[in-house]
User: Fold this.
Amino acid sequence: MRAAAQRRPPAALRRPVRPAEGAGVGRAAPCGGMASVVEYKGLRAGYRCGYCGADDGKVSCGMWAHSMTVQDYQDLVDRGWRRSGKYVYKPVMNQTCCPQYTIRCRSLQFQPSKSQKKVLKKMLKFLAKGEVSKGHCEDEPMEPILEDAVASDVALINKLDVQCDLKMLGDTLKESLEREEKKKGKPAKKEDSKELIQSQEKEELGSGEPSRSVEVRSVPQPGKGADLSKPPCRKAKEIRKERKRLKLMQQNPAGEPTGVQAQRGPKTEPHQPRSLEDLIFESLPENASHKLEVRVVRSSPPSSQFKATMLESYQVYKRYQMVIHNHSPDEPTVSQVRLVPVSWEDAEFTSSFSQSLSLYVKYQVAVHRDPPEECGKTEPENPPNGPDCGYGSFHQQYWLDGKIIAVGVIDILPCCVSSVYLYYDPDYAFLSLGVYSALREIAFTRQLHEKVPQLSYYYMGFYIHSCPKMRYKGHYRPSDLLCPETYVWVPIEQCLPSLENSKYCRFNQDPDAVDEGRSKDPDRLRVFHKKAIVPYGVYRRQQQDPGEEAAVRQYASLVGQACAERMLLFRS
Assistant:
């Protein structure tokens, strides 16, 4: 999702490109334009992992997307694939050193956490008064504080911690009493010890404070009495009553009726938390110090706004790579492959596509009795029931006082907004633009949902539990992780206990569940070979290399039956 979340593919799989090259995710249907054309690169193993630092621990399969429709990419993402520029890759989860689980946020149910609200308030203060926070301003929390966790998780963790500490406290007190009685030659009074321990438990659990803050007093020795320099012991019940009285006094300083009399009064509406949109779009004073504008511009095919701002956007990207990632001045030119949308029309394919498509349609009608209008049909790039801006690849540009300070690279797909990358001007790192842009993208997803009901998820890339600095994506709740074997979505709360015990996990608890979208008929896979589109069953009879069949079947198993039948697998 964020800058640190996506690592570049090996050097052999990258090439220098310009940000403006090519078209974006989501072309028209094959009968009226381009289909998805991919070139499978196979399995890559033994290269450096940017998360754990292992020199040869990373394992993945990849393919080069010469063009890609939005529906195909949506289906690929839902099978664990991810794009970096035009290179689309899928980690081999049970072999790679740091398994990468696809994560999505259920944007419609999202509520910002306390620290996320602080980021939004910090931005509002900066815009309204020009205030610059002097505190910690790390863009993404690498070691999150406890308040960022989900409330239910915090309650469970605190409860377990308190119980664990009280058990240890009880054992310590019991041993202390037994030692004292043993020294005096008397048996320990178990009932007294038990009563003391229970009293400590009641007092602690009633206070709501962590058990670590309890000051354990030594048990008075026989004959010496209580320590008069310290306040007398009080029962937990009395403490709770006094606390309740103080609370009521604070709520009713003028002596209004309390208790039963107060309950009989008119019912008031419970406090409703402010929505994400209320926090983001809070009104600013007329004399605000700064003005922030977020523009969504299509990056493929590049719109006129994209072309007009490309140079300024690229300068921000170059500074970001140099300052944040310590790249040399020339290196960003090579690594800007991430800025290029995954889909574009390659000239070598465009020239022969119409002829080869006609051949494929004839084959489908004659052999499989498919209606001609249904052959390879997918949705157009700008369907009437789609978002107003259309589907595909976009840049969300953050303009502050007339200049670009950050750019979020996103894909708008049929069911989600997929965050690809973020880069920003390092001079504005104090605004926590990584967190801020993620919240803006969630709000954007909710906005698109109003027009397109099925578009309701915010995909954040990969969640890597074995890498602590990459766990921040789990803060955007409620969220789900993709099961790497059955490709069903499982709430992250159910996945975390398993990930604590093993880096690689199957999240689907049904042992009989299988991948419903698996490749069941490889012969229906479409192959683009020698300027012709043919089913794999025909192509296979023309080949004599057994390694070729293994590679094609591996590709089919990874992309699934639906994509295998729609996409064109280029074979030279």
About this structure: The longest helix spans residues 151-183. The mean pLDDT is 77.
